[in-house]
Amino acid sequence: MVTMTTHQLHPIPALTDNYIWALHDGAQAWVVDPGQAEPVLAWLAAQRLQLAGILLTHHHGDHTGGVAALRAATAAPAWGPTGEPLPDGVQHVRGGERVALLGRSFEVIEVPGHTAGHIAWYCAGFAPASIDGPVDSAPGFASASELASAPAPGSAPDLVSVPAAASAPDPASARGQPLGPEGLLFCGDTLFSIGCGRLFEGSPAQMLASLDRLAALPDSTLVCCTHEYTLSNLRFARALEPEHPGLADHQRWCERQRQAGRPTLPSRIGLERALNPFLRSREPALRHALQRLAPKLALAGFDADAAPATPEALQTGLAAKPVFESAPRWTADVHAFTALRRCKDVFV
Ligand SMILES: [Zn+2]
Q1: Which pLDDT band, with edges at 50, 70 and 90, does 343 fall under?
Q2: If you measure from the C-alpha of residue 177 to the centroid of ligand 1, how many angstroms do you get, rounded to a whole number?
Q3: 223, 188 contact by CB (below 8 A)
Q4: What is the C-alpha separation between 326 and 182, in angstroms, rounded?
Q5: Where would you tag: which of 55, 147, 182, 259 has the fewest CB atoms within 10 A of its CB?
Q6: Hey, which residues does 8 pair with through a beta bridge?
Q7: How many whole angstroms from 113 Cα to the centroid of ligand 1?
Q8: Has residue 270 got a pLDDT over 90?
Q9: Ligand 1 centre and the CA of 19: distance in Å?
Q10: What is the DSSP track for 226-294?
Q11: Rounded distance, CA 317 to CA 309, Å?
Q12: Cα-to-centroid distance, 2 and ligand 1 (Å)
């Protein structure tokens, strides 16, 4: 059952391309992965809100850098994953544990891969009443007069246009329709719109299992990723599948959002299941596309006359060589996923 509330969801731009997601009820606010304190404190002051808590998904500095200053200024409690080095005073939680947040219960889902202890925060059956703006100017972010795009005809005036949950062949066709979100997910750097996080500490098998776990959530779940990577991810996805009509349509929508200074997020699980190559690595069409693209990327890494973009890209390309060579013999799902992730790593 979906429970409508007065809660509002707001992405606070930070650093180069981070969003610090905030959820508030008009009096109290929680924030997720505050990589900086200053934009959060400025937003709290402007909105006359009190910080009631902080949720963390993993230990990277662009997700935790503002915790100490925010706690010093507000004494707000904070929760983060067990087994990761987190700022002093952060309480550690494991998968299945819950934290109460503005009258809602958020469940911890363990999603290792990007880091060894990465978690996601999920609230089932909960729909924020709106996603409010404006998006303030920040480094790397265009300023915008408002976050909300024009609502679809007949929709509630304060409900912004977000990608629709859809399993239809053209998932973008219903975009903007208020389908009633059935859940809210803060997934850090595990699932990005049309992409996924790099594997810094975990294995491809761990990341595939983590993405499977998130992909099993209801289609209309709002997906709050931490980075504005969607257009970059779409370039890779379209290099894989140039003829995919859903990707082309979604790219046009995302370009309009960014040109207007609006986020391409939150996404929805249904849209990601339909378009995100990292949630589709078992599909025959995706695997055929991967086998076409993989040798081209591998060659770029091995051509002595063609300098790779970075030493890191060369190293990744070399490490990926056995995977590319074995492409016709992929027997396990994780082989295809590994090749896909490594193709993205060397894609320039
Ligand atoms: Zn990270």
Answers
A1: confident
A2: 32
A3: no
A4: 41
A5: 259
A6: 24, 130
A7: 10
A8: yes
A9: 13
A10: SB--HHHHHHHHHHH-TT-HHHHHHHHHHHHHHHTT-----EEHHHHHHH-GGG-TTSHHHHHHHHHHH
A11: 11
A12: 31
CA 123–ligand 1 middle distance (angstroms): 22
Residue 71 is given by DSSP the state H
Per the annotation, binding residues for Zn(2+) are 58, 60, 62-63, 114, 189, 227
- Find the mean pLDDT for residues 9-32: 95
Cα of 188 to ligand 1 centre, how many Å? 7
**How many Cβ atoms from other residues are within 10 Å of residue 47's Cβ?**
16
How is residue 186 written in tokens? Answer: 């803060």
Residue list, annotated binding site = 58, 60, 62-63, 114, 189, 227
Distance from C-alpha of 80 to C-alpha of 170, rounded to nearest angstrom: 37
Render pLDDT for 123-175 as a digit per residue (tens, 0 to 9): 998 878 888 643 443 333 433 332 333 333 333 322 334 554 433 333 333 34
- What does DSSP assign to residue 327? G
Model confidence at 216, pLDDT cuts 50, 70, 90, reads very high
| Distance in Å, CA 155 to ligand 1 centroid | 36
- Architecture of the structural domain at 3-279: 4-Layer Sandwich (3.60)
Task: Tell me if 149 sits within 8 A of 260, measured CB to CB.
Answer: yes
Query: Which residue, chain included where needed, has tokens 């609006």?
Result: 262
Distance 154 CA to ligand 1 centre (A): 39
> How remote is the CA of residue 200 from the centroid of ligand 1, in Å?
8
63, pLDDT greater than 70? yes
Contact 287, 330 (CB under 8 A): yes
Alpha helices of 112-228 — where are they, by DSSP H?
204-215
Q: Is residue 289 exposed (0-12), middle (13-18) or buried (19+ Cβ within 10 Å)?
A: buried
Predicted local confidence at residue 289, as pLDDT: 86
CA–centroid distance, 179 to ligand 1, in Å, is 31
β-pairing, 28-32 vs 18-24, is: antiparallel
Domain boundaries, the chain: 3-279, 284-346
